[in-house]
Amino acid sequence: MKAIICCFSFLFLFICPPLLAMEGTGVALKVSLSGKIYKRFSFILEEDIRPRDDFREAGWFLNTGEINYRILPNVRAGAGYMSLVRYKASEEVRNRYYQYASGSHRFGAFKIAIRERFQSTYKKNCLHPTNYLRSMLTLSCRIASSEFEPFVYVEPFNNVGYNGKMHADKIRYSAGCDYRMNTKNCIQLYYRYHTFNVYDLINYRHGIGLTYSHRF
User: Fold this and answer.
1) Based on the number of CB atoms within 10 Å of its own CB, is 143 exposed (0-12), middle (13-18) or buried (19 or more)?
2) Which UniProt keywords are given for this protein, alphabetically ordered (predicted)?
3) Which of 24, 25, 178, 188 has the fewest other C-beta atoms within 10 Å?
């Protein structure tokens, strides 16, 4: 296990320098805790830190709390709250509420997953929220005789606005790999690329991330 963690850390440090040399590159470091509440109900708690591009201090803190319900073995629905806090900038506090439904199907070593998520974000001292419908399509492949599962996904951020006219403000593309250390612990390393139609204060065009997940 220690060797795998060191391997992921090495890859993270190896990938960082060339990416950070590119304009518009950011890093995301996340810890995710989840567990069963009662029967089909589960919870998720996450802390996501987004350092500034110069790495001198933290940029944003994204704190998430979620409750979800397993409808079928591969179908789930949930709702959650996220606070987005900009470091040393109280006027940039945002409150986000979201609901989603997701489903997956495995065929052989491959798995395809679909998630539809509606989110509403309220900025402090702002009159109206920003509403998005985010549609994520993921394809992953489990490598035989190992705990590695690489994946790719695409996720448009569709601004639904107030007049019923939906348009894509940005599209997120990502590729990465999960490594399941055991039934309770998992590490994920990924790269993200965004295409923007509007200015985004939190996300960079290029991004790399490292996530540690633990399930109780």
Assistant:
1) exposed
2) Signal
3) 24
